[in-house]
Amino acid sequence: xxxxxxxxxxxxxxxxxxxxxxxxxxxxxxxxxxxxxxxxxxxxxxxxxxxxxxxxxxxxxxxxxxxxxxxxxxxxxxxxxxxxxxxxxxxxxxxxxxxxxxxxxxxxxxxxxxxxxxxxxxxxxxxxxxxxxxxxxxxxxxxxxxxxxxxxxxxxxxxxxxxxxxxxxxxxxxxxxxxxxxxxxxxxxxxxxxxxxxxxxxxxxxxxxxxxxxxxxxxxxxxxxxxxxxxxxxxxxxxxxxxxxxxxxxxxxxxxxxxxxxxxxxxxxxxxxxxxxxxxxxxxxxxxxxxxxxxxxxxxxxxxxxxxxxxxxxxxxxxxxxxxxxxxxxxxxxxxxxxxxxxxxxxxxxxxxxxxxxxxxxxxxxxxxxxxxxxxxxxxxxxxxxxxxxxxxxxxxxxxxxxxxxxxxxxxxxxxxxxxxxxxxxxxxxxxxxxxxxxxxxxxxxxxxxxxxx
Length: 454
Prior knowledge:
Layout: H1 2-23, H2 39-55, H3 62-75, E1 82-84, H4 86-96, E2 99-102, E3 105-110, E4 113-119, H5 124-127, E5 135-139, E6 142-143, H6 149-156, E7 163-169, E8 177-182, E9 184-187, E10 191-197, E11 200-205, H7 212-225, E12 230-234, H8 243-253, E13 259-265, E14 272-275, H9 278-281, E15 302-306, H10 313-323, E16 328-331, E17 339-345, E18 351-360, E19 376-377, H11 435-452
Parallel strand pairs: 11-12, 12-15, 15-16, 16-19
Antiparallel strand pairs: 1-18, 2-9, 3-4, 4-5, 5-6, 5-7, 7-8, 10-11, 13-14, 13-18, 17-18
Helix pairs in contact: 1-2, 7-8, 8-10
């Protein structure tokens, strides 16, 4: 038996060596990446694999074991690295185009449970009243604790018009809640725009997709023709999305070739600076949509709204506008998702999502686990803030060793002792009861007065 296990170990070590060569990661230029493969550890893995194959109570498919091993290896790194089986990879690709099937929730892992980072607007989850910070403890009759994030997401997704029951725990509530949601094709409208007062344009970005920057440019042009003289850009509850879309949105407000964001990782190709330049926000041979933007857009008074559910691409935009002194950031500390994930395709239509770098604002501030501190702190509501999960709360979140100097985190005023999150009535972003929007309007009016008095 021992001889068979050792033989299996040697075979498995050879297999791993072949896989490492075939993937041809650019990280191989790094000294650590070219170190010898850990033969003893791989032999132990092979022994476990063989023990399961020979002695587990039921037969187990080889692919299931290998997929599980890959998934566990990646999920142990940080909350955003993951193995994408063919279905998950297909869903990811569809999501960047703004259409996918499911409930419409951005989620993370905390203490083995699924925690809501943000519901996406105009989706089943949003309409059901699911809030950032809610803890999902059961999906139908399946207890979530112990499931991988990928497995939980797969359970929430499914054919349109099928139902799923979510059991939710909410901070401040004594009892769990059961919500039955109907899955549907999630078609996220990335940019919404309107005039909220004479001369004041309001633009909300729900998610950064392939065409977000061009859609924003189109809406800015329409509002300018309606007499817009000042802008509110709303990035609240925006979980992020595509990097080039964030660069394009920033470029709509910044001077040409202004630095938007930089990335830094272990490999040469993970170190890059992104500018408000067509090379960095266009893909393919498309026309430069920013050329059609009215010139005065870049000088109009600008307020950017953010909150604890503004993540990733939202934070890139907020940090770029803040560091370039183009607009005032209003709201609460952002989520702090400042890491870069690269999608590496594998055979069999699968892929891995691997964290390869960290994001830094133009002045060199790290976003990771810190987020963007607003220039003017305004709570979600007059009563306080919703209970939110942030990057720093996620298990195995990436730290920033030796990070550049950063603004200290600003904590919003806590809820009064007699109140709790359940006492805060939900409100519509951009609606009449939107406290942060009302304060942003006041800030904008002050900026307009100051501009006129120059």
